[in-house]
Design a protein that fits this description.
The structure is a single chain. The protein is built from 4 helices and 12 strands. The strands form 2 sheets. It has a 7-stranded mixed β-sheet. A 5-stranded mixed β-sheet has the order 4-7-8-6-5. The longest helix has 6 residues.
């Protein structure tokens, strides 16, 4: 297992690891467009509970999703320490509110363990596996599963 950006060999994948509360998650780096500091969002009426609102990103309206709420956790109270991961989900660009980005991980499929059967159906639906790295447990999320195409269109 190595850290940092490098030339990937066949079967390697790069993941962005981030924190929400005291838990760590990661997503495929190929989905990530940029990482930026927290910007207060303008609330949208009648939007889902997990949608914080929208921000202006270089002239484009970017929906901001509170990933903790979307994953069934306590809502974030955004501060200057929070970050927005700008990601491509299906054909839409969204901002994912997280506590902090921690690492860029280079892993192989062998490093990804299956999601335990004791997890809820929702967790198994969103999680593509678990990485056990240096006494850390990092849940690999599948953004396309968290935001089905019909919901990302609505956002």
């Amino acid at each position: 297992m190595s850290y940092g950006v490098k030339n990937l060999s066949h079967g390697d994948r790069e993941l962005i690891a981030f924190r929400i509360g005291d838990q760590e998650f990661c997503v495929n780096i190929m989905s990530v467009r940029e990482i930026r500091g927290w910007t207060p969002a303008t609330a949208m009426p009648h939007s889902p509970a997990y949608m914080k609102g929208v921000i202006n990103l270089r002239g484009a309206v970017l929906p901001i999703i509170d990933l903790s709420v979307r994953l069934g956790m306590k809502a974030a109270e955004p501060s200057q320490r929070h970050v927005i991961i700008v990601a491509q989900v299906h054909r839409k660009v969204v901002g994912l509110l997280v506590d902090a980005v921690s690492d860029i991980l280079t892993v192989t499929d062998d490093n990804i363990q299956p999601t335990p059967e004791v997890s809820s159906e929702a967790e198994r639906q969103f999680a593509r596996g678990i990485l056990a790295i240096e006494k850390r447990m990092i849940c690999l999320l599948e953004l396309d599963a968290i935001f089905p195409e019909t919901e990302s269109e609505a956002a």
